[in-house]
Structure formats: structure tokens, C-alpha cells
Amino acid sequence: MIESNDAIRVLDTVAKNLMGVAKNESNFERLPDSFWGYFARGHDSKGKFAVIVTYSEKGDDVDSLLQSYEQWVAKNKVK
Length: 79
Prior knowledge:
Blueprint: H1 4-22, E1 35-43, E2 48-56, H2 59-76
Antiparallel strand pairs: 1-2
């Protein structure tokens, strides 16, 4: 089980990095017209983490991506 202080540390790192990305306008130049995503991953001494941020003018794009991820998790979850 993930300890609460580990989860806090991971989310704090993700939030700080996303703020850095968000404040740099060059990260958003030449985006596609209707769908874009940002992916980042990191690690600490205990494990790895990743974050995916997506935006679409068509909600089905985001729903489809989440559904794919949920299926992957269901197939690969360690019991």
C-alpha cells in the first residue's frame, strides 16, 4: 500500500512541475486544433510515477483515453 506521505510527495512534485510547464508559453506553441496532451514521468527512491494531461474539444477523445488506461490497469494490476 502507498503511504500517505509518499502520495503527498509525488503530487507535490507533479504540481510544481506542471506549474513550470504552464507558465512557459513556448510549451503550447503549434498545438493541434482540437486535441493535445502532456505526459511526464518521474521517480524517487521508492518508485516511479507519471502524469498525463489531455484536452480535447471532443469529450469522447478524453473518455476513450481514460477507458484505454483503465483497461490496461485491469490487465496489469498486481494482485
